[in-house]
Description:
Elements: E1 7-9, E2 14-17, E3 20-22, E4 28-34, E5 41-48, E6 56-59, E7 65-68, E8 77-79, E9 88-89, E10 93-98, H1 105-111, H2 115-120, H3 134-139, E11 141-143, H4 147-187, E12 193-197, E13 202-205, E14 209-210, E15 216-222, E16 229-236, E17 244-247, E18 253-254, E19 266-267, E20 276-277, E21 283-286, H5 293-300, H6 306-312, H7 325-330, E22 332-336, H8 338-355, H9 361-376, H10 383-395, H11 415-421, E23 438-439, H12 441-455, H13 463-477, E24 480-481, E25 486-488, E26 491-493, H14 495-508, E27 511-513, E28 526-528, H15 532-542, H16 547-557, H17 562-580, H18 587-596, H19 606-618
Parallel strand pairs: 23-24
Antiparallel strand pairs: 1-11, 2-10, 3-6, 4-5, 6-9, 7-8, 7-10, 12-22, 13-21, 14-17, 15-16, 17-20, 18-19, 18-21, 25-26, 27-28
Helix pairs in contact: 4-8, 4-9, 4-10, 8-11, 12-13, 12-14, 12-15, 13-17, 17-18, 17-19
Amino acid sequence: MSDAGPQTPLGECIRHRSEIIRLDDRETYLRCRVQLNGRGVVLRDRVLGVDVKTKEQQVCRAGELLVAEIDAKMGGVGIVPDDLAGAIVSSHYFLFQIDESKLRRKFLDYYLRTPDFQTQVKARGSTNYSAIRPYHVLAYTIPLPLPDEQDRIVVTLDAAAARVAEATRLCREIDEEADALCRSILSDPRHPTTPTPMRELVTLRSPDVDVKAAESYHFAGIYCFGKGMFRGQTRLGAEFSYDTLSRVRAGDFTYPKLMAWEGALCVIPPECDGLYVSTEYPVFEINTDRVLPDVLDVYFRSPEVWPKLSGTSKGTNVRRRRLNPQQFLNYVMPLPEREVQERVAEVRAKLTGIKAQHPGLVTELEALMPAILDRAFKGELGGAALSAASALSAGTAPMIAGRVGPSRDVAAPSDGAVAEHASAESGKVQMGGASGQTWNIPEIAAIQAELVRRNGGSPTLGRKKISKGAYLAAALLGAKQNPPPLRKAAGPFNTQGQNEVEAYATQAGWFRDSGLASGQRSSSRYRAGDRITEAAAKAKGLVAARAVEFERFMSMFVNWDSDTAELHATAHAAWNGLIAAGKPVTEAAIIETFFEWSEEKAKFKAAQIRSALATLRSLGMEPDGRGPVVSGVGESNLFSGTSR
């Protein structure tokens, strides 16, 4: 395909089909569903007819296009695979036969995952739950070369997808195998161990910092499931309620009391030395004469250990169990001999060096395939994309061949092996991105201009919605905002900052606030400026690393009202704030923090917050303590009446 060519309506290649059957209570049926984010059609379950409330169901045929009426806007579309022929779906799905003499199903399958397709899937109505209809799908368009050319493109994309998938698998396997290798040394039955209570190996340290309201504290947090510690947000003492904190030192050991049973335990790494944790994190000094820090870190990151901690912890239910310091000190671990400990430390040091050579590579790999698809359907697919995927696959050789069993005599990898596998770094593709960056006035204005370009003139796009949209875009990209968002009654917002953004956008010709003409800023309605395409180009560059996710977010955002935007932005800020403060993160804690934000939040229900959290996860906006930092308390009447 030399160029993108004309766009053909899907209605010329597909036909809506509905085959309804009535379920027999005694028969077993396969039910299928579409995954979000273009991840295809999969088996939902096997069910007896008697257990299905709605007896009239649709029957799927292999190779048909399956579209979810609600979730299509979040990538809920796909092709029915051969092994799900005859599966049933409810009337909330639409099925379309594909005329393969015009449109190859695999070609369509790839196109369904592109930003160009997703931008067409616009929900009708003003809420996140509005549905598309079959005639909408028939009106979507696709660049349609001749079938032979479609086949050639599919072959190329299949090869690229296979190589990207293999490189991604190998990258993840490196971390998994490295951890498994270290654990196998500790668990080798040929290595004798001595049951030893933790109180003989570590000493509890008391909190050593008195909080001062005017001073700043950079918090640390710990991921669950053995993922280790991360650097959180910096907060003023006036912004949290703890009177004392602990300042952690590299080589100390800590965990959050509430989340220890989910594998949130670790030795403090060098990059987190000097950070602070709350009193919810007991901190222990390690007696290195008895046990090396690497041994404790490997042992307590082992999934088989976490259930034992769960049994030790006390609480009212499984998700509220707390591992108190004295209970932890009573815990007995199998302590290996010093020689084995030193071997673990040696192996781990070499493997850590290898793993450190490719930070972010998996993220870049995941972004590569959408970029290849985008080029393919714009007629720009050549050998370069496949070559890039090949380089990634070849450069990411498996660091460890095969699984390491507990009975094998494991030696430390040689320096030569380290050098050989370090070649994975040579395959890195620089995708760009905002993570760790700061969006200043021009960047925030560019993102808001893109919101105006897609949503301008809408009665729902006031100051609240446009500011929350820019906040969530920054959250998606992991970028901070300057001026920073403040903790206002209606969610993250900065009044002076928004004034500066709008002044900049007006002067640049990107967009303007038509509500100012009436002298009432509360009637803000934004209109595109003469140079808004310039802003669109800048916004595209800012979100390039997560273009697919940004498109998915935008397809939802344009249908939100201002309260829905407030709901999602505040939920993210509450969630992110808990992580940054080093506090235990549970759904209940997020909801509690949300309602504590201001009295205005009483208009929302807990169920709405849970739904918003699920939406944030589906959009790839699950926070990690980075991104926009929210602080302060603002006026309660900032967005009253028509300003919403």
